[in-house]
């Protein structure tokens, strides 16, 4: 009987010692004895930018044909200094607006070329220089444009030419009168007039020049569509 009691007691002890280890407590204790939950890993969302980069938005606006462009020349042109196809540049003096929105700001660069040049003639023909703008740069973009031609014509010199001839005739008549009386005056007038005419024929008329800062105006002859930042 005692033998069976010892066997049962031994079996109970073995079972108690070989029991499985229970799950570890997920709680931790700090140095102050306070028990708390283990901190969770930081969220990856916390490492993301606070705000995404927003791309600029644009809308397309069409400037109708006939719109006036008020310009200020940035380069010089002249009937005796310019050549056909020579570049010409200008800047917008005033902004272009559509429905109250600025679509081409003041200062926008406008580019073109000389299209016609004619020097003043010795007998007839007034000096002339013409050019046309074909592109504009605004908002960091370049646009092709179609515009009306701008031409500058030298003033007429007919009055000045007539004065030169008259002065020549008058001086010749005076000299002729001193030398030969009435007949001498008539002959002197003819000779003096011919001399005055010779001066006119040998002298060119006035040339035309437009320098930087000159105010000029042109118009769009075709619609222009531009991108405007919202």
Polypeptide structure, described:
The chain has 230 residues and is an alpha+beta fold. The chain has 2 domains: 58-155 and 206-229, Type IV secretion system, VirB10/TraB/TrbI (Lipocalin, Beta Barrel); 158-204. The chain has 2 helices and 15 strands. It has helices at 2-17, 158-202, and strands spanning 27-29, 35-37, 58-63, 68-73, 77-78, 87-92, 96-98, 101-104, 109-118, 128-138, 141-144, 150-153, 209-210, 215-219, 224-229. The strands form 5 sheets. Strands 4, 6, 9, 10, 11, 12 and 14 form a 7-stranded antiparallel beta sheet that branches. A two-stranded antiparallel ribbon has the order 1-2. Strands 3-15 form a two-stranded antiparallel sheet. It is elongated, with a radius of gyration of 48 Å. It starts with a helix and ends with a strand.
Summarize the structure.
The chain is α+β, with helices and mostly antiparallel strands.
